[in-house]
Amino acid sequence: MRHILPTPRGTLTPDRPLADLTWLRVGGPADWLFQPADEADLAAFLAALPADVAVFPMGVGSNLIVRDGGLRAVVIRLGRGFNQIAIDGNTVTAGAAALDAHVARRAAEAGLDLTFLRTIPGSIGGAVRMNAGCYGAYVADVLESVRVVLRSGRVEDWPASALNLRYRQSDLPDGAVIVSARFRAAPGAPEALAARMEEQIAKRDATQPTKERSAGSTFRNPVGHSSTGRADDSHELKAWKVIDDAGMRGATRGGAQMSQMHSNFLINTGGATAADLENLGEEVRKRVFQTSGITLEWEIMRVGEA
Questions:
Q1: 78/34 Cα distance (integer angstroms)
Q2: Does residue 2 sit within a domain?
Q3: Which among 32, 81, 144, 244 would be 20 to 30 A from 57, CA to CA?
Q4: Which 3 state secondary structure label does DSSP give 48?
Q5: pLDDT class of 233 with cuts at 50, 70, 90
Q6: 151-155, 179-183, 220-224: which has the minimum mean pLDDT?
Q7: 299 is catalytic
Q8: Domain range spanning residue 293?
């Protein structure tokens, strides 16, 4: 029996398909999709929502497989009321829905170095939750604080240390929604920062299938990371290398494929189901373990019912 949900000021849609909201374009419907008008609307809705109703915060779906049966939950997706970017001195405050690339560009224009965010797909909320990083820099290096709305509806400001950020992980309570984050960035010449971002984009496009339907890196690199989330590239074992060694570059299942261009990218070649994608990923994990004894861990989040 479906619960009677609170009436928000934002948009609440029942039985909303989620495939078009994810980069992989797969997945079944959510029981409800809630797009809050603003922070107060989100807090009031969560406070009034029955405690046994599950909540799943969702960004732009860049690192997500929603299974074909969908989600028995209220999916919360932040929009325009949560994408502001403000700069004060050497601090940048960004709404959780602000795109990582937009934050990097705005910061660079102000002479602040958040350039590592430029090539990270997705939005700030997801970047914080996953301690996103590349080119040797991570959110953990620059994050000062976050503002969250807890499942109870309580709004709190937390120092970065409260999240216990580490490699591709953080400690965030179930149902908690990040609504904004504040970063402290090192200064830099805007022209030099812009040039660095252009170089990063060129490097990414030359080595990754950026024009395919993917969700970024499929598996975490197995070893070589400190507890802070920083990588020691000189000793880092790459997921793509063990996938190649297992003979799984280009492997297919239904409409799913491990990219020929970069074997740690799982792509939807057209018509893949969520089951195709997840089962191919599990086949890769099995083959890698058989050939190297290494257990790959998913970096892509997988949610919902099969």
A1: 8
A2: no
A3: 144
A4: helix
A5: very low
A6: 220-224
A7: yes
A8: 209-303
Token reading at 226:
């400190």
Query: Do 93 and 185 fall within a single domain?
Result: yes
Tokens at 165, concatenated: 């950020």
pTM for the full model? 0.90
Examine the residue annotation and report whether 168 is marked as an active-site residue of this protein: yes
Q: Mark whether 217 is an active-site residue.
A: yes
Residue 196 domain flag = no
* Catalytic-labelled residue, pool 39, 212, 278, 299: 299
Amino acid letter, 122? G
Instruction: Give the pLDDT confidence score for residue 168 in this predicted structure.
Output: 85
| CA–CA distance, 256 with 276 (Å, rounded to integer) | 6
**Domain identity same for 95 and 48:** no
Q: For residue 168, how many C-alpha atoms fall within 13 Å in the half-sphere facing its CB?
A: 18
Task: Tell me, yes or no, whether 240 lies in a domain.
Answer: yes
| Beta-bridge partner residues of 113 | 186
Residue with tokens 């002479």: 111
Of 173, 162, 168, 155, nearest to 55 (Cα)?
173
Please name which of 302, 135, 293 lies closest in space to residue 218, comparing C-alpha atoms. Answer: 302
- Measure Cα distances from 189 to 115, 197, 296 in Å: 12, 12, 40
Q: Which of 214, 217, 259, 263 is catalytic?
A: 217
Residue at 297: amino acid letter: E
Per-position DSSP letters for 192-259, written without gaps between them: HHHHHHHHHHHHHHHHS-TTSEEEEESB---B-B-TTS-B-TTTPBPHHHHHHHTT-TT-EETTEEE-
On whether residue 66 sits in a domain, the answer given is yes
Q: For residues 12 and 15, what is the distance between their CA atoms, to the nearest angstrom?
A: 10
Residues 24 and 121 in one domain: no
Q: Which of 168, 249, 285, 287 is labelled catalytic?
A: 168
Looking up residue 144, the CATH number of its domain turns out to be 3.30.465.10
C-alpha 168/C-alpha 153 separation (Å) is 26
For 295, counting Cβ atoms within 10 Å of its Cβ (0-12 exposed, 13-18 middle, 19+ buried), the class is exposed
Q: What are the tokens at 245?
A: 């060694």
